[in-house]
Write a structure and sequence with these properties.
CATH topology: Spore Coat Polysaccharide Biosynthesis Protein SpsA, Chain A
CATH superfamily: Spore Coat Polysaccharide Biosynthesis Protein SpsA, Chain A
Shape: globular
Oligomer: single chain
Strand content: 15-25%
Radius of gyration: 16 Å
Number of helices: 7
CATH architecture: Alpha-Beta Complex
Number of domains: 1
Strand order of the largest sheet: 7-6-3-8-10-9-11
Number of strands: 11
Helix content: 25-40%
Structural class: alpha/beta
Amino acid sequence: MIHTPMREFYVAGLVLAGGQARRMGGADKGLQPFRGRALIEWVLERLEPQVDEIVINANQNLERYLAYGYPVLRDRISGFAGPLAGLHAALAQTRCDLVVTVPCDSPFLPADLVRRLLLELQARDAPAAFAKTASRSHPVFAACRTSLVDQLGRFLESGGRKADEWYAMLEAVGVGFDDQEQAFRNVNTLEELRELEQDWRVRG
């Protein structure tokens, strides 16, 4: 249970690992090694203390993801419909008040991500909140009320796929994380993964 100044929320943390990773040649991003562990292991370690429960969204390598000890949800919308399809699956299943999404390829996500998203969502009485920095928005780092499940389902069934477009329809709020811009660094190619590993070695 997450405590905010006005109320308490039960929060499910959703790790998004359901994509096809085309830019990585089809390699499953969440299972790629980084600093001796799979990328998703770093994400789980950062997210777990911030939420009441964790679920993983995956559409391949299900047994390997199940080995981490958390429920694994497949998309309910066919055709690898993107991160919103993973969110939809979690909203449809969880009994929590909110679902907070993070990608499987951002090992340094903020340790205070959930609390800051929830504080702004509550203060603005918003249906959803997403992270942003000075340079860009980060729509896969977001908190969404579970009551949005039917609305999201209709958006996906109509062919909608872009999180930014859906958030604009909802009038979701952006939450600034300018103080932690590097925490949102993610991996889209094997080359980027090698660069991230090298950067860590230099800094270490």
